[in-house]
Structures are given as C-alpha cells and as structure tokens.
Amino acid sequence: MIEISLKTDRQIQLVDITDRLQKEISARDWKSGVCHVYCPHTTAGLCINENADPDVRHDLERAYPKTVPDVRFEHDEGNTPAHFLSTLIGPSLSLFVEKGELQLGRWQGVFFAEMDGPRTRKVWMKWLAG
Prior knowledge:
single chain; alpha+beta; 3 helices; 8 strands; globular
C-alpha cells in the first residue's frame, strides 16, 4: 500500500491529486491494471470531476454546504455536516491504468474532497495488475 499525505487549507476544499497519483504510478512502473484509491477519513472523500476550469471546483466548494439538510444533528463535535457530505462523496475510487497512464476523460481529474479542514490527511493507493 502507498500512502500519500496532503494538507488542506480550508474547511471545504477540493484538492486535485491527479498528478500525485500519476507520479506514484509512474514511479512504480505500473503499466496495465486498476489503481484503487481510498480515503481513510470519515469527514473527507474522493471524487472525479472537471479539472480544466478551476471555477467548477470553486462552484462545488460553495455548493456542498447548501446540500446539508436543516436538521438537528446529535453528534456533539459540531462536524456532522462534514460526516454527511463525506457519505455523499464516497471514500474510494477504482481507476483504470493503461500504458502507465491514468485513464480519465478529457476534462477529468481526481480530487480529495475535504469537508472538515484544514487538516493533514492521507490517501491510500493499492495496485491490481491486469
């Protein structure tokens, strides 16, 4: 298993980790298979979205808090909205790799979705050769 560390700067933040994942894939000479990426945190997740226009990322960061329902949360740490959002985003992705390159759509990137920052976080990677 490979561990990638990252720091977030804001409470809600999408961090593009595409290049970091590709760097790890290249460093290990992984050619064809599936790269599993996992977030071991309950107030963060992983997603794929557009990374060509930074406005998309900023729009999503502003929209996420508005999706939290107006209910009384009983968890008394005060970060239940982050727990709620992380369940919508999800903790893992399976990414195809061919000829040593992540196979993403033209405008796609892989993002770490912070919902309770700023924090130091980690992402785990595991390889399944194909």
